[in-house]
Amino acid sequence: MSVIYDRVALIGLGLIASSMFWAMKRGGLAGEVTGYARSDATRATARRIGLCDRVCDTVAEAVAGADLVVLCVPVGAMGDVAAAIAPHLKPGATVSDVGSVKAAVIQAVGTHLPDNVHFIPAHPLAGTEHSGPESGFATLFDNRWCLLVPVEGTDPDALHRLSRLWQGMGANVDTMEADHHDLVLAVTSHAPHLIAYTMVGVADDLRRVTDSEVIKYSAAGFRDFTRIAASDPTMWRDVFLTNKDATLEILGRFTEELFALQRAIRTGDGDHLHAYFTRTRAIRRGIIEAGQDTDAPDFGRVKAVR
Ligand code: NAP
Question: Which domain holds residue 22?
């Protein structure tokens, strides 16, 4: 594959940025990749493991001359980071991000960027419960979706180029409008995470009563919940604070359904339960048929390959 951007700057060096770096290297998609993280510790780790061709001590140095700058920090930090990079951007550069929420990021970032750069928000639908510079791997985006969320007046060539980069990193690319993105993700990712956090919290309360039996005999269902609930607390705090309306809407519907199932259990309405579980089983089959998970009993986890 050929070089798509001569210079790429990754701001924030965690799971997503490090996976992007290894995926860009794998595909030969970038001439030089610079990186910046706010802490000395993360920059030192990045240098030690060869994450980025050049790790910079300032954000200004990292973005200077870059054709593409990707913000890979928690959603709540995007606005401040955009303000910090704005004076140093090369005219004509593309600025993108990987945040899990889009309307709030567009609002927070868009206000700071100069008119002479292209701002194209993005969200790769791929991740693990691990975070930090050592957690990334080249295959993270393979056969996963990356949603591009172009704002009004986006330059088609800049959009096409960013799309080619994500495809080069293994992703299938689609475009979506910001509010729609936030609603879809509230259903597919944000509400499920909150439910997992709650279930693990409940089990933890119980554990004190049952003296560790919850952990000792933890069956697959609960184990999968604990994996999701081990996700980065800062990232997920920011997701709920910035995708408030859509998440609350979905949680409202969830609560109604839960009450209906609760009633079915109380009244012994087996037909209701059976019909409900038959419908949900078909959804699982659909996800497997769409290639978005495997049938493996361990949740089809990907093997990390750097
Ligand atoms: P991560 O592994 O936790 O790394 C976050 C990076 O952001 C670190 O380099 C950290 O710097 C930096 N950072 C944290 N707070 C900051 C602040 N207030 N100001 C400046 N920099 C800050 O995170 P990640 O999983 O790669 O997530 C990055 C973005 O991708 C988030 O917006 C998230 O919503 C999105 N995303 C995540 C996933 C996922 O499953 N993890 C999937 C898709 C999209 P230090 O290391 O120096 O503290």
Answer: 5-176
**What is the CA(14)–ligand 1 centre distance, in A?**
5
Q: Which atom of ligand 1 is nearest to the CA of 100?
A: 34
Answer whether 12 contacts ligand 1 (Cβ < 6 A).
yes
Overall residue count recorded for the chain in this entry: 306
pLDDT tens track for 128-148? 989 999 999 999 999 999 999
- pTM, two decimals, is 0.92
132 lines ligand 1 (CB under 6 A): yes
51-59 contacts at long range (C-beta below 8 A, 24 or more positions apart): 51/13, 51/18, 51/21, 51/133, 51/136, 52/10, 52/13, 52/21, 55/13, 59/11, 59/84, 59/85, 59/88
Do 34 and 160 fall into the same domain?
yes
pLDDT tens by residue, 257-274? 999 999 999 999 999 999
Residue with CA at minimum distance from ligand 1 atom 18:
77
How confident is the model at residue 212, as a pLDDT?
A: 67
| The last residue of a domain, from among 153, 176, 199 | 176
Q: Is the CB of 79 within 6 Å of ligand 1? A: no
pLDDT at 141: 98
